[in-house]
């Protein structure tokens, strides 16, 4: 099945099956209050909790949150350390609640750079929730879209070298099976908070036909009303996937 055909098949509803959010604005939010950036990240964690709860209530299948990009290592060391500590505490605190609400949590990205302690917390949280059948919550941590595509290509190159497949067998469908989140519905809606209008190396492959929604709201202020506004906007979009007619009007 082609990527576009799969997109159309998976989007015959006004409610997105898969929402991805670039959570931007924690630092600016804190600065407006005259506080350290880490305070904004702490408040941002509360916004994550609200977003997850709302996604569950709206029966969204998957929610992918851009928590820490591969470029974020370039931030001041003190801020990076604080983010890692906050991530670890959030895993300890939130995993039992996620499990209680039938949420499956996964971390996507290159976690090899994280400390042994943080990786252990990630594995523990994933193991606790792996059999849940409700919302799939993906936390993109040390993630980059270019890294994602690169690791898929490296895997396929090894298969060719080992004689398991030929270069001619590699097409969009095959590559799509080896990028992250390939087992989920395609991303239908990307939300970016904080007023910036860019995707910042986030899910470059997966959002090829996603709708983009930008809001001036800073992430710590992101709540159910803002999320609902994004869904209402999505419901008004006519998705053509490169064609001339809305996908909902086509015969599959």
TrEMBL record:
| Cofactor: how and how many bound | Binds 2 magnesium ions per subunit.
What does this chain do?
Answer: Catalyzes the sequential condensation of isopentenyl diphosphate (IPP) with (2E,6E)-farnesyl diphosphate (E,E-FPP) to yield (2Z,6Z,10Z,14Z,18Z,22Z,26Z,30Z,34E,38E)-undecaprenyl diphosphate (di-trans,octa-cis-UPP). UPP is the precursor of glycosyl carrier lipid in the biosynthesis of bacterial cell wall polysaccharide components such as peptidoglycan and lipopolysaccharide.
Q: What is its EC number?
A: 2.5.1.31
One cellular-component annotation, GO: cytosol
GO BP annotation list: cell wall organization; peptidoglycan biosynthetic process; polyprenol biosynthetic process; regulation of cell shape
* The family this protein is said to belong to: Belongs to the UPP synthase family.
This protein is called Ditrans,polycis-undecaprenyl-diphosphate synthase ((2E,6E)-farnesyl-diphosphate specific)
What InterPro entries does its record include? UPP_synth-like, UPP_synth-like_CS, UPP_synth-like_sf
> Which residues make up the binding site for substrate?
25-29, 37, 41, 69-71, 73, 75, 192, 198-200
Q: Which reaction does it catalyse?
A: 8 isopentenyl diphosphate + (2E,6E)-farnesyl diphosphate = di-trans,octa-cis-undecaprenyl diphosphate + 8 diphosphate
């Amino acid at each position: 099945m082609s990527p576009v055909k799969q997109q159309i098949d998976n989007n015959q509803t006004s409610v997105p099956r898969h929402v991805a959010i670039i959570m931007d604005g924690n630092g600016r939010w804190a600065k407006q209050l005259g506080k350290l950036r880490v305070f904004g990240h702490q408040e941002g964690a509360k916004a994550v909790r609200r977003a997850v709860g709302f996604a569950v209530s709206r029966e969204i299948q998957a929610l992918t949150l851009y928590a820490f990009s591969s470029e974020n290592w370039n931030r001041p060391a003190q801020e990076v350390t604080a983010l890692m500590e906050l991530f670890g505490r959030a895993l300890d605190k939130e995993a039992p609640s996620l499990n209680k609400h039938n949420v499956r949590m996964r971390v996507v990205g290159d976690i090899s750079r994280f400390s042994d302690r943080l990786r252990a917390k990630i594995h523990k949280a994933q193991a606790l929730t792996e059999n849940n059948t409700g919302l799939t919550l993906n936390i993109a941590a040390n993630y980059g879209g270019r890294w994602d595509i690169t690791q898929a290509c490296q895997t396929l190159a090894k298969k060719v070298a080992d004689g398991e497949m030929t270069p001619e067998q590699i097409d969009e469908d095959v590559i799509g099976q080896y990028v992250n989140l390939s087992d989920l519905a395609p991303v239908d809606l990307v939300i970016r908070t904080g007023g910036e209008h860019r995707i910042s190396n986030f899910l470059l492959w997966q959002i090829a036909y996603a709708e983009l929604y930008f809001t001036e709201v800073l992430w710590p202020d992101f709540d159910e009303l803002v999320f609902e506004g994004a869904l209402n906007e999505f419901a008004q979009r006519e998705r053509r996937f490169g064609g001339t007619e809305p996908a909902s009007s086509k015969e599959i």
